[in-house]
Amino acid sequence: MAGIVRVGIVGCGRIAEADHVQAYIGVKDCKVTALCDIRKDRTDGMKAKNPDFKDAACFSKAADLFKSGLVDAVSICTPNDCHFPQTVAACKAGLHVLCEKPMAGTLEQATKMIQAASKAKVVLQINQSLRYNAQYMALVNLVRSGAIGEPFHVRCIRACNGTPNVTWSPGADWFVQKKHEGGMLVDIGIHMADVMRMIMGDADKVAGFLDIRLKTIDVPDNVNALYRFKNGGTGVLELSWTLPGGAGFLEVYGTKGRIRLGFSDKGVELWKDGEKAETATTYPEAKPLKNSQATFVDAVRGKGRTLTPGEYGRRALALCLAIKESSARGTFAKVKHFKGYDKL
Fold this sequence. Notes:
Elements: E1 5-10, H1 14-25, E2 30-36, H2 40-49, E3 57-59, H3 62-66, E4 73-76, H4 80-92, E5 96-99, H5 107-120, E6 124-126, H6 134-144, E7 151-161, H7 184-187, H8 189-200, E8 203-211, E9 222-229, E10 234-240, E11 242-254, E12 257-262, E13 268-272, E14 281-283, H9 292-300, H10 310-329, E15 333-334
Parallel strand pairs: 1-2, 1-4, 2-3, 4-5, 5-6, 7-10
Antiparallel strand pairs: 7-11, 8-9, 8-15, 9-10, 11-12, 12-13, 13-14
């Protein structure tokens, strides 16, 4: 489409404030023209904080925004259980969609979202935000360049000592509620599993263990998984909301070396096989990438393609749901891939 892309933000909570709002303000040929939240104080507050939104229309129901004629595209920033119905409804209204992760609660729902976007001929982008993160992509690109030879093992741990409804978004209890499809697995696991797939390719099967240690929630707060990838390699994924002191790193081992990204200011570290540890090459600053929202607007305008289409979101979801299935069954589970879309 030509001209200004008019965007509506559905859900004016923490993720909208932390990511989508400021990102859209900086995008050329884009204007936020509508806000929607079931709480009026949130839409009013977002308008008050952002002069760029002073003329934005406010809605309490997503359906009313979708049929308003005031937007060409929407960001779905609502709790997880709203992603599927709201995305399908937006597509049926002819709107392009940038949907927060996880895109859905089931693979069947994810497929229907992809089909709805295809039928309506609109862009469906999933906010798998690490694909727009400079340091993560620097690591991925180093692996793909052959810097460590053939990768055969990846290790990832992401852990903290507190649930997001207490630490990151106080009061957002849907993060830790089964009825809203919350939980550690799809909150953080969806990102890390996607990165592991970028590094190693598709996974064949997974052994997973889910635990609920906190007595105040009904979704897993600890996740442990072992992946077997189709290239013969392996991967370990550890996630926790209850680890004292927290922890975080991503390591990739190859036939000629190792790459490590710790969650510190050191950035990406590359060791070549046979070298001493102190000779590691560090990449503390990676070249900034175009953010998710700018990429989305470009795709809507026909000026580029989304880096995270619905098919990618579904593949990341499949990697997480296989962990859940394995834990429930007590056996390895096959990863149910989306057929017909084989690019990484």
